[in-house]
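Standup, Tuesday
Yesterday: got the pipeline producing structure tokens again.
Today: sanity-check two examples.
Blockers: none.

Example 1:
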Amino acid sequence: MTLKEMLSQSCARYSGRPALSFVHGKPLSYRELGELTRRIGDMLRSLGLRPGTRVGILSGNMPHWPAAYYAVISEGAVVVPILPDFHPDEVHNILEHSGSEILFVSDKYREQTSPGNLPALRHMIRLEDLSLVYSRPADQPAVPAPVDERASFARSPEPLEEDLAAIIYTSGTTGRSKGVMLTHKNIVFDVMQCQTIHQVYPEDVFLSILPLSHTYENTLGLHLAIACGASVYYLEKPPTAAALLPALKKIRPTLMLSVPLVIEKIYRNQVLAKFTANRFMEAAYRFPPVRKLLHKLAGNKLYDTFGGRLKFFGIGGARLDPQAERFLKEGGFPYAIGYGLTETAPLIAGADAFKTRLQSTGPPMQGVQMKIEDPNPATGVGEILVKGENVMPGYYRDMALTRTVFTDDGWFRTGDLGCFDRDGYLYIKGRSKTMIVGASGENIYPEDIEALLNNIRGINESLVVQQKGKLVAMVHMNWEEFEANLRQMGQEARSYIQEKTGDAMALYHEKTDEWLEEIKQKVNQRLNKFSQIHKIKPVAEPFEKTPTQKIKRYLYGHKH
């Protein structure tokens, strides 16, 4: 089955039911979604779209986002969803690497694109009203292509399930662009198998708070809902408490997907803060029977805050804090934790609400094979390998990288370490790759940040690690160069030292701090929000290295 066939069936079966809407907007029915998708497809063909054409989408969540996505894949073309948080340089690199010829872009992100610098990009379409806002001079359509009129262009051939549907970039930095190719079959298989974990019904209501360009929200929060005839609502503003609380009250969702950060903030700021407000409460909270009672009361209140009819609150993208999870479990909140990767479309393991086990992602999903390679005899921990119809065919335009992530007999290497309990529940124990998972589930590649740092004069080498949820850059500096700079300060330095009664070290430390702050700001200007450095720590000695001169990362706590 293809995504086009899945959409067609739902539009016919649930034609009058609401499909997509803003929280405070008028819903698009399934029939209207089908018609809008066809009209956008007509417009795209009038602009020269053909099977295989890559089409980017750069926007926050809105009902037109899925309509554009479905229009692209229904024509046999390939959609390239771009995370709105990406830096403009990354957006440029993704559009360039993918060879995207058409881009749907919302007003907020128009400035992140420079179509004149992208030779392949021929047209840009404003997502809010689907109007054509840019065409390369050589590709100006003879007749404008309005979305609200039927165009008389030959229909594209039906896409096949093996055809490429999407290329999803987990990083867009120069030299590290990594586009995950997902076929129709990959995504539809994942949608079908998700229903073996939790069945979704036409009466269900989703409130979407994660970006649609992330595979997690895309498959589980959009395609799964559409396949089952459910309704999806989008926030008009970013999901802050001020925007989220009224939306929860109005929509009263039955399903939601989230990252650990959301629930951890609620736990720390509301639950834990309240129950440890004074010494008496803190002492009582440490007593398990009291703690469970308090958690039950707080859990009931949280359930009401979320609208009072939540059946499934999915958490994924990063590891959930054990104390926050214990609160959810003891509070009777209907949470569930899943495990997956962009490369697996994404879900590969999960449990339904109330079938969870603390710190486990649940068992492998039906139809997915999973095994542990070279498990440690004492702990059972080893790298998690996966096989299934949801596993990508490879990385776009990178056969060398593709070969490194598959075994000779076709198993996909997740790069994660884990083990199973006796009932087959999976426990993730860490990452064997260097990738850092940000607080909201973003993929952060330390090598990208290190490359920027290492290019700065005065830094010999660097290592980016995560400490207490924040990115810290450890740098080995060229102190001779720094001291030469200090000497060049000449009279300013001498005056300062005299003023401070000869305290040369005070000047040294102050100027060091200023220099590090300057470096931090310079690097952060070139990084997206979630990859920015919190602190730079100088180290006295060069980093320990392997015989091939790679830094021994494990010695410096990069997995913390």
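Example 2:
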Amino acid sequence: MRLSSIFAIGAVFVAAAVVCLIAAQFSVAVIEDTSRQDVRESLDEEGLSWAEVDANGLQVFLAGTAPTEANRFKALSVAGTAVDAARVIDQMLVADSAQIAPPRFSVEILRNDSGISLIGLVPATTDRETLLEEIREVSGDGAVTDLLEVADYPHPETWEVALDYAVRSLKRLPRTKISVDATRVEVTAMTDSAEEKRSTEIALARDVPKDVRLALNISAPRPVVTPYTLRFVLENDTARFDACTADTEAAEAKIVTAANKLGHQGRPNCIIGLGVPSPNWGKAAEMAIAAVGDLGGGSVTFSDADISLEALKGTQQNLFDNVVGNLENALPAVFSLHSYLPPPEDNSAPELPEFVATLSPEGLVQIRGRVGSEFMRDTVDSFAKARFTSDAVNTAARVTEDLPDDWPLRALAGLEALSYLSNGAVTVTPDLVNVAGNTGNKDASTMIAGFLSEKLGEGKRFEINVAYKKALDPVAGIPTPEECEQLIAKVQINRKINFEPGSSNIDGNGDAIMDDIAEILKKCGNIRMEIGGHTDSQGREVMNQQLSQARARSVLEALRARRVLTGNITAKGYGETIPIADNKTEAGREENRRIEFKLIRLESTNEESVLDSLAEPVEEGEEAAAQVEAETEEGSSDEQN
């Protein structure tokens, strides 16, 4: 074979090899570009733009820093849908968890008769065992179900405060759901009565920690009201409700709208309850209130389906007849109307007999006026002593004849009405029972109106002028923690808790001020407070600290001796470290030797105020609270502290 033929054949094979190599390289480049593009597009569609994609032959490399392990796994999964998962090579990193925004920590606490369940996510720093132990104490014999998850992330400062508040609130709420996060606590609960609902709402709202928002959704079963009562009065261009009851919010709105048209301000304390005599209650009340306005004043009283309309003295007879006639024709079925137009004054008429009972703010009852017999006087006296106390009642009523037949009933009904008040008076005449005074119960007027309507009977007249006073309310009248702190500080403005020289014994003059402080704290409830002991700078610093601790502890013991709840009051000695005056002068040193009562606020315990049921407090420096013995070489200086 010729040499030229061999070269020609070799050249063909070389050319073919070059073409194959070029084709292979082109195919690989196409596969790499296609794989890279497909994976890139898939990752971008899922919002995983942080992932970097590269390809080498059939292998696809994923690189970059994933925000979380879940994001890394998601990127691998997405890439595996674009190309064969076996071709995907993982070269990704996961960001440091400290640099990742923490999750939203939250807990749902569910409580019912069978037990308590906890569901949610808590930080790893939460003392889970202590939390569960507190929950078990609340649950008692009920089961505790722990479905909490834990995450090791930093948490907001108020997280522990909010969780602690929620757990303690659980003691007040046997059927509830409490949702907790770092800045908000939402309480959904059911109570057994309207009174319990109100007291629970006030207690929870009073004690919510600082920087934590509280949302309340507390329900109570509607009470059964008997008799169903409403009383509206318009006199001297002033409108008021002595009693208000409605079966629905819509009926209440009708009643309020009708009263507001006559000048009534705000919303009355209407009771939404069961027992309404007719579904047209709201319509009938609206018509009757409008009739009072048409008369130019007067009053209307509902007792179930019986309505008493009374005009003001001096109302024209024609106007009275027209208004009463229109109302009688317009009232829904079931309702019956009794109307009364006071007669003109007759100065020649004989003096009307009276029965008067007064109740003083101190609880003393004075009974005077007229009764029909000795037996009646003894009955009134016994009834009053049963309603109040034996030592508080003084009966000075006189026996006369010619009293109305229902006089005993009216007198006893008046005494019963008086028992609803904190202080006031009841006056009984032949045609009227008048009740006036102050009360700490918002529903007192409604209760009195219902009672008198039931006992006196149809068409009988009575007047109620009862004022609600917050200070007399056993729940709303409780001072706030801040008010308690201010009251104690006010007590100490001109007086001071002093001690025997160099000792922790309160001197003889300190009993009076301790009595006053104890009375304030009894009204305040179990608030969290610190008793701080302070000395001047004379003597050794360690001795001053120990002496101040012992004195603070001595004050705490004095409060316990006076039956003050001290479970949340701590005693701490500060020694000479916080002077308020110059220690170089005797007057300044005297000011520095002091006892201070301060609320434990958010800055020191992540909490501004607490509920009545708190964990046992830790008293700082209690080991130093032992009796301090003055050392002989420092006796003269310690005597000044």
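Quick observation on example 2: The radius of gyration is 40 Å. Confidence is low (pLDDT under 50) at residues 602-639.
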